[in-house]
Amino acid sequence: MYNACYTVMHKALAYDTDGDGLIENSGQPDQTFDTWVMSGTSAYCGGLWLAALLAMVGMADLLGKLDDRKLFEQLLAKGKKSFEKKLWNGLYYNFDCSKNQSNSIMADQLCGQWYLRCCKINEYIVFPKDHIQATLKTIFENNVQSFCNGNMGAVNGFLNGDIDYFTIQSQESWTGVTYALAATMIQELLTPPEALYAHKYYRAIGYMRPLSIWSMQLALEERNKKD
């Protein structure tokens, strides 16, 4: 898979428009929250990009591709600094760099960290441990506890003390995102929230995100090994 991954990463690198080591969003539907558009550096895509860079470092190292490893290491080092400088606000990572959405608390902002843990990368190489802990605490207090009395999982977006009404997707609670968030909390040795539907209806019958529930089992198995 290395050649395919290498090609994808270099294609994606074209979206690093300012040379800071991070890909930027266009303000158009260019990621899987296709109505909740992102502009400039975003926590969701930026975090996934950094996790992917670390994966490329590992793969290049295993294959003895030293020049490639050096390239991806340099991009990762530059991107990590930019990510923290542009998005970290002391409590969580800003949604993006736009004027009207930047302060939105996104439930899925640590998606990159979740993937790294699922790949059994347990060191805090990309995201600082204290920032992960603070972010999870902020998400739980706002997107979970302040949404439907804490009984419906995590709402995708929370802004200025209320649900983020920017788009239908920011207002929704997605089971897959909630499962991934719960797994991330388990990975960080935090008690996860429990998500239940409040009403008997749905907008989409099903897609891939709910499969993230299996990462909860992986997280629990790894935690039990330590116990």
UniProtKB/TrEMBL annotation:
Signal peptide: none annotated. InterPro entries: 6-hairpin_glycosidase_sf (IPR008928), 6hp_glycosidase-like_sf (IPR012341), GH116_catalytic (IPR006775), Non-lysos_glucosylceramidase (IPR052566). Residues 1-188 form the Glycosyl-hydrolase family 116 catalytic region domain. GO terms for molecular function: beta-glucosidase activity. GO terms for biological process: carbohydrate metabolic process. The chain crosses the membrane at residues 41-63. Keywords: Membrane, Transmembrane, Transmembrane helix. The keyword Nucleotide-binding does not apply. PANTHER family: BILE ACID BETA-GLUCOSIDASE-RELATED, NON-LYSOSOMAL GLUCOSYLCERAMIDASE. This is Glycosyl-hydrolase family 116 catalytic region domain-containing protein. It comes from Rhamnusium bicolor.
